[in-house]
Amino acid sequence: LGIPAEPLFRSLNHHPSNRQATKRQAVAQHPYTARPSRTLPLEQPERLPETMRAVIQKVSHAHIAAADAPDAPFSQIPHGLCVLLGVGGEDSEADARYIADKIAHLRIFEDEAGKLNLSVKDTGGEVLLVSQFTLYGAARNGRRPSFSQAARPEQAEALYQQVAALLRGHGVNMAEGRFRTHMLVSLCNDGPVTILLDSQKTF
Fold first, then answer.
1. By C-alpha distance, which of 193, 187, 185 is closest to 64?
2. 203 annotated active-site
3. Of the residues 20, 25, 134, 194, which is catalytic?
4. Using CA atoms, how far apart are residues 168 and 190, in angstroms rounded to an integer?
């Protein structure tokens, strides 16, 4: 072509398109301007602590009826606590004891000064205990809750009955729901006062 090799090489390197490409490459490699990877980490399935859970509501009255006999309540209390109890797959007697002790001694009833300073035992109230495996519904991923962390029915019923027995041992009058039964729970939340408990103290 009549052009020496070295000048030709320099002329190609100094071509505008080549200079722009070189600049883009330098920017991409610079530690402060390099773009982060677009690869996103895989979403991990939700895993919540497997602890015994209870939703405690202070009530002026509460009762339970079977779904096929809504006008015939089979269990009721005049005033006290309505407790929804969920049992996890790894729960044990220690979890049952913790929850029962908390329910019996939780000070969420008013004293003479109007302060929440008395327990259900102090006021002579009763406890309506209802099994509630849906407390383990994991709904962060997707729209259909997963209940895989709830205990199997046989294990759940045994620990549910243990919580009821421990409450009676604390001197609390008890009323219960029916395990593995479609129930209609009616109550009047007094306050309202609602407390969440779990045996591993995660909330």
1. 185
2. no
3. 134
4. 23
Tell me how far CA of residue 161 lies from CA of 40, 65, 130, 176, in angstroms: 46, 19, 11, 9
Average pLDDT for consecutive 10-residue bins of the chain (203 residues)?
50 53 54 52 50 96 97 97 96 96 97 96 97 91 90 95 98 95 97 94 70
Instruction: Point out the catalytic residue in the list 51, 57, 109, 133.
Output: 133
Among 171, 164, 162, 76, residue whose Cα is nearest residue 119: 171
Question: Could you tell me the maximum CA-CA distance found in the chain, to the nearest angstrom?
Answer: 110
pTM: 0.74
Residue 157 in tokens: 């019923």
Determine the Cα–Cα distance for residues 66 and 69; give it in Å rounded to an integer: 5
